[in-house]
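assembly run, all chains below
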Amino acid sequence: MLAFIIRRIGQAMLVIGVMVVIVFFGVNVIGDPVWMLISPEMDQSAVEATKIALGLDKPIWEQFVYFVGNALQGDMGRSFVHGEPAIKLILSRMPATMELALVALFMAILIGMPLGVYAGLKPETRLAKAIMAVSILGFSLPTFWVGLMLIMFFSIMLGWLPATGRGDTVRVLGIETSLLSLNGWTYIALPALNLALLKISLVIRLARAGVREAALMDYVKFARAKGLSQRRIVGVHILKNIMIPIVTVLGLEFGSLVAFSVVTETIFAWPGMGKLLLEAIQRLDRPVIVAYVMVVVVLFVVINLVVDVLYSVLDPRVRLTEAKA
Amino acid sequence: MTDTPISPAMLAGAAAPVPKEETPFTRFRKAFFEDKVAVAGLILFSIIVALALLAPLITPQNPYDLRSVDLMDSRLKPGSVAGEGFTTWLGTDGVGRDLYSGILYGLRISLMVGFLSGLIAASIGMAVGLIAAYAGGRVETILMRIVDLQLSLPAVLIALILVAALGKGVDKIIFALVVVQWAYYARTVRGNALVERRKEYVEAAQSLGLSNARVVFRHIMPNCLAPVIVIVTVQTAHAIALEATLSFLGVGLPQTEPSLGVLIANGFQYMLSGSYWISFFPGLALLLTIVSINLMGDRIRDVLNPRLEK
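ok done. output:
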């Protein structure tokens, strides 16, 4: 078990290392490194001074060592626009994005599971067919357009929920969260639903396929023969067995929720790191872009690592095949 | 796709008339048309493509031609009559462009970007997958590691960073879409090619002394096409949606190349003041395009999936 975890951590470090190399070469070799580190307002002499101060006249491998050294200390340069360290900016916006992604994830489970289980238990009913049609539509709908339509319907036409921004936040354990006030929930409802939409469709499909498969299993027949109620069979026996793959997939999908929040945050003016990234792209604030990429890559690698390790704890077959290979 | 391998039945058919020979393609066509939903998707898609191709002939206005656009006509409600005298059935946008014309011209760009990027990505991905499977060893390990690395990061993020680095433009967005798509093809084709290369016909071709390139591209590749066709439909829909998303975010296509995403983005600022149609109708066109492709794709996948064969 320990050997498995160590090997996985080693692989994770390797991936991060490769990404550092790619980002370094992307920014410093293909692009002009000076442009990454100065603001557009500087004049020529200031540009030259920066070049020398940053050691950009040195050979490329020395620059790489410098870049990695700084990155290891969490220094990705200063934002041109905000004048603060880029990494600090990203981390200060992170709680808002995490909050949004987590709410979206729970929405996906709370809405998707009952619909998917129903569609799996009674696949021939009209309602089940309607659910599946909606899930196909959910895959086809462009997220950003749905966001616009949600604003149009719930905010402008009905006036129920605010269209943009984040509600009142409360500080808990040093993290700002808007989930502890009713006002905060009215603000997060629409963006979270928008972000969750694709995942709801995914959960419906996974749950339906899982239920249909599980319904044929011997343990379900046995439970039925024992005379257990349908509610208990579905709620305990089937649900327990289909939850493992769904939770795994959703764990892996959490990263894509964070990535997709760029779109949702822009539409709903949600002050998370996705919105920050887009603003940075539009203003050519390169240190922030680099810092965002590195933070997200690390986040992805960590998520993959945690899911892998958890999976091997839950399912011993995974680490056995790994050990043989 | 129409390029079916020559079967003995077809050779015989050249000499003696065989009433109805069954090629893989006719079998596929028959199975595809059995599903009414898929046929509806095909019809819808054909209409959309036809409208896009015929755009200059059937629209009252060329949205690229600034002389025909009048700022006085901006934000007209659907059904109003524009200054030029034609009725704008879907209304006009913020600078007075007729939305119906804008949507049809926008469809041309969106479809072109989607298909072109899909075809290029499919070619590159297939080549990489075949080479990896056929070469094996270290080449395979390195290529597949790259594929794994890329697939572990979400497409929207990679594309966003790429267009941020490259800038706006049709060529740049196609490049970005190719980069995010090729890995899917590479992985699938490799999986298939690994199975195919162990089959006897490959051994036969090799013992005839054919070159590696010929064995790979003339013998193995045609047998790996079925899953590629499935991914092409799914990925093209994805690519169209992704292009629209990037353009909506303002990092995709420039205002001079108004794809559907650009049109929706333009309407966004007017939506809060009640001019819903500027974003709504281009979005509907985008939705119908993607749905029609997905409906066909679902059926194609079912038909071509060997595990579901009767």
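The mean pLDDT of chain B is 80.

The first strand of chain B starts at residue 80 and ends at 81.

not gonna interpret more than that til we talk
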